[in-house]
Amino acid sequence: MNAFSEIKLIAGKDLRIEMRSRILLSQVLPFGAIVVLLFAFALDPDRGILARVAPGLFWITVLLAALLAIGRAFSIEQQHGARDGLRLAGLDGSSVFIGKAIAIAVQLAILEAVLGLTVVVLYGVEVHGVVVLVATAAAATMGLAAAGTLYGVLAAGLRARETLLPLLLLPVLAPVMLGATRAFEDGLEGVPGDAWPWVALLTVFALLYTGVGMLAFGPLWEDT
Amino acid sequence: MTDAGFVIASWVITGLVLGGYALRIALRTAVARGEKTLFKPAAPKAENGVDR
Amino acid sequence: MSEKINNRDDRSALLPRAVGRVVDSLTLVSIGALTFFGLWASPADVVQGDAQRIMYLHVPAAWAAYVAFGITTLASLLWLWPRTRSAVWDRVAGASAEIGLIFTGLTLLLGSLWGRPVWGVWWAWDARLVSTAVLFFLYLGYLAIRAVPAEPIVRARRSAITAVIVFIDVPIVHFSVNWWRTLHQKATVFNPELNPEIHGVMALTLWIGVVAFTLLYVSLLNRRYQLAYLEEGLEETALDSAILQRSGGVK
Asked: What is the ipTM of this complex?
């Protein structure tokens, strides 16, 4: 089996589990939506703050929801000896990494699309520079998925993983949060030229963590 | 607080933080060597609800 | 309590005993010198007055933190490299990260104490402050991973990989935060550390500070390493006797 079909196998498996359990749709998405709603309570919708800070609120919501999605991606391996089965399948560590990262990225993309729409409608954001927004979201999603998969496997199987994962992941993702928010702001303000350097930064982050993940995932996966 | 007050405070805090940390290492080292014990070995009654 | 509860060799510090003693005494002497020069011998700054003396602690603490995290990364790489793999590097990495975290926390505290009289606020969204704060949390996460019990080899591998991943993030954080604070808001905060006109006694004092904190780092690393070694010994050999002691000391 070549690397490509291994990746397809893993990504397909994770997405199929999601299709059947619908955890993302029935739990993670509603969680994101209620966070979006709570921000309006915290920041008083009448003063026009919400539309101005919408990019930041959107990415914080995505980040929180991503934590749940990443935790979920590894908790599905805990049940019914799935992890041992997968390990015994003799797949390459880097293929498993890429496959799981792709599955997480697909789920995050759906999440971002729905939450983005919610934010636009509820906060009254005027959308400009769609190209920049999509490019930013794509690069940021890749970075989130790559770093998330790497830290996900690191925390997987540990006793305090639910509390450990956010502590590990949020500081690492701080640059993603920062870059994606700035790029969104620039895009929405109609100065997409300022956004592209941030997109480049997000892309570098994604590539770096994909590279490290492919190297490190194998040994970490063996230990969980 | 005056500037001098801030300077004194910074020296005191540095001393407390670093001194406290060094002390903690020393204490844990002593425990690890068996020179000190943090648990009193006496009174072993009904530990974990089981009487011996 | 006289019985031996730890089978590990007591001469287990990183440095030979004599060298360790010399480092310890030099540390104490240099800290004394730093206090003398920092609080008395050096003149007050023309612009900042006495408050500037906090620099003599703040800058060396930040320096020592960077050294510590650098050593953690180096030791982790040495552990990962099969030909140099040794439990020594794992202990050095963990010990150094813990000391680095203490120094980073101290740097933030001192920066805050300095900011209040000079900038008028306890905290400013200055690029360096923000990236130092993120650094603090990155290594807090690393130590949290280390604290999770596991087989020694598993724990060492997990820790070493984490240390490398965390270190990769440091330049990205630094770069992005710098970019953010300079691109969108022209550097609002006067940063006294950039003042190029430091010389004479003030420069000397700062150098003494750097030497003192570096020595202190080595001294603490030496001790913390020894502690890690002894505690491993406790874990593997003394569990039985500890249980015996707690259940009445009957042998």
From this structure: 0.89
Distance CA C61, CA C64 (A): 5
pLDDT digits (tens, 9 = 90+) for C138-154: 999 999 999 988 888 88
Q: How far apart are CA C223 and CA C95, in angstroms?
A: 9
Could you give the CA distance from residue A183 to residue A194 in angstroms, rounded to a whole number?
7
Residue C26 reports pLDDT greater than 50: yes
Question: By residue range, what is the domain housing residue A60?
Answer: 3-223
Residue with tokens 């933030």: C108
| Region C107-134 average pLDDT | 89
Of C134, C161, C164, nearest to A174 by CB-CB distance is: C134
Overall domain count for chain A: 1
Q: Which two tokens stand for residue C76?
A: 């982790």
Please write the tens of the pLDDT for every residue from A57-95.
Answer: 999 999 999 999 998 888 887 777 777 777 777 788 889
Copy the structure tokens of residue C40: 């008395």
Residue extents of the structural domains in chain B = 1-33
Model confidence band, residue C58 (pLDDT cutoffs 50, 70, 90) = very high
Instruction: Measure in Å the smallest separation between the Cα of A128 and chain C Cα atoms.
Output: 20
Taking CA–CA distances from C247, the nearest residue in chain B reads B44
What's the rounded Cα separation, in Å, for the pair C166 and A216?
Answer: 13
How far is Cα C169 from Cα C131, in angstroms, rounded to an integer?
11
User: DSSP string of B3-46?
Assistant: HHHHHHHHHHHHHHHHHHHHHHHHHHHHHHHTSS-SS-S---TT
Instruction: Please name the residue of chain C whose CA is at the shortest distance from the CA of residue A154.
Output: C158
